[in-house]
Amino acid sequence: MDVSWEPVEQGDMTGVLLGYEIRYWKDGDKEEAADRVRTAGLVTSAHVTGLIPNTKYHVSVRAYNRAGTGPPSPSTNVTTTKPPPKRPPGNISWTFSGSTVSIKWDPVVAKADESAVTGYKMLYRQDSHSAPTLYLASKSRIDIPVPEDFTHAFVQIRVTGPGGDGTPAEVHILRNSGTSMMVEDSVTRPVPHVAIITTNSLIMVTLISYLEL
């Protein structure tokens, strides 16, 4: 999660501000057992990792100097998102029509303990020497322009949503003469030379109160 707060006013503190301390603890735990992250200087935001998905946390911020930490801000509550679906898109198929390749796959349906699917991300690379291109799709189908001399491409497809990005399905697309559609078991066939994009789940928390030392 990303935590941000208003800075302490210079007139509200004594000594030299060294930074801020973020404390966060699970609902039901005591604040004394909270995990802590410290920032240095005048930074007024922090990125906290290692949280448990679908879990309620309490968060507070304190300023600190050489004498120690000041009083905490009022705590705020945040519930982390559910993780993305574990199942990658399956039954991927494609057809060629002139200078376009149409790629489709079975939609991924989130389970009760998984975050909703809001779309799909596809990394497309024509060969091992070209840079990958990221495509976004709201449905389980996408049309991509290809050159006339297209022979093959490497593709990764994964779900995306509030819980982050899911596990990618990887396929090697070939233009075979006499074959208008090919279906490949994308879960069991790895593809070399394909970059992977992962996105962490972010939870924004704003703490408005001032801190004093």
TrEMBL record:
CDD domains: FN3. It comes from Semnornis frantzii. One of its GO terms (biological process) is cell-cell adhesion. PANTHER family: FI24025P1 (PTHR44170:SF54), PROTEIN SIDEKICK (PTHR44170). It holds the Pfam family fn3. InterPro entries: FN3_dom (IPR003961), FN3_sf (IPR036116), Ig-like_fold (IPR013783). The keyword S-adenosyl-L-methionine does not apply. Residues 66-91 are annotated as: Disordered. Residues 1-84 form the Fibronectin type-III domain. Keywords: Disulfide bond, Repeat. This is CNTN2 protein.
